[in-house]
Amino acid sequence: MKCGVPRTILSPASPSENFIAMFRRDTPAEAQFRMDVRTWLEANLPAALRGRTTRPPPAELMPWYRTLSRKGWIAPHWPKQYGGMGATLNEQLIMTEEMARIGAPHLPVQGLNHIGPILMEFGTAAQKAKHLPSIIAGTVIWAQGYSEPGAGSDLASLSTRATLEGDHFVVRGHKIWTTWAHHSDWMFALVRTDPQAQPRHAGISFLLIDLHSPNIRIRPIKTIVGDEEFSEVFLDDVVVPAENLVGKLHDGWRIANALLGHERLATSNPQFSLMALERVKTMARASGIIADPAFQDRVAAASINVMALSALFSHAVELTNHEKSPGPESSVIKIVACELLQTLTDLLIEAAGGHAPADEPIASNFGEVDVAAAFLQSRRATIYGGSSEIQRNVLARRVLNLPS
Fold first, then answer.
1. 263 is catalytic
2. Of 92, 121, 207, 258, which is least packed with CB atoms within 10 Å of its CB?
3. Which of the listed CATH numbers 3.10.100.10, 2.40.110.10, 3.30.70.1450, 1.10.3720.10 matches domain 142-255?
4. Which tens digits make up the pLDDT trace of 327-340?
């Protein structure tokens, strides 16, 4: 379906005019860095990967991951000693903004943003040496084995068992909603190592599992968007070396909570809201609703909220850069970011009008916009990484100290 609007109605804005102004100003050195990033991205990011609503498959995406790695930009937030960029806070934010401006695809982040920082904090020297370089190089993809059919929001009720037998564990269980597991090489997983422990979370450990091991079956799950972003992982007496235990036995819950802070921060990256806001503006120009003062007010309010999210994200990144875990406060940014993303896709549907149900990107003189996929994909944002209801419970109990 096409949404054709004559060019004479509105002239498309240039990217610099069209993009949201951020909450801070670049220093001269930062302005030069921004221009260097923008110029390099324009020259190196394939056009076919720009503006994608869903994550491209590995055959398309991982060459771009490795291009960023060769440039030294795959992990701006990692220390240089581990192969990262060691970027300043503002440099990290500039890269986020420029990735959003050009519509860069969503990379697999379970290695970069989840297990990588956890290994830096809790891993042994051998674990760091084995796994961190391959994450940077993009030769290994990681998945997260947390949720189970009976343990989603109530993660402490997980039932996947890991029994220590000499120098190895034997793991049996079932993980679900495991992002990209069918494309991954390794999975970090929470497993129950003491089924009698009370409280329940006291008997959980954190294991690294090679997904190429015998007795592992992986079944992709097709989502409402039509992609296969998630999987089920079946572990039937899988042998895992004891050296793959991260931290101490039965101490996985503490590590899991530290990782959830990193995950909530990663899912709150303002790149997603920045790109969603640009889709709204593009669609509104194409449909003509941008001329409606009431709609303009709503877009202005959304723009302010995106700027506020960027400021909040900046604060969280600064804490992380100073080796301070975001802690339960990360629930705030998770709620703000994911609910804002849904608000933006609601606006996108309104801007598209009768064209919104189209199952293909809507073409116009102002560019293509994939409206339906963006809307459907945003529905899961308030569920993964801990639902908004769970995040509010965390804040009530652990930040505000309200009674249970």
1. yes
2. 121
3. 2.40.110.10
4. 676 788 888 889 99
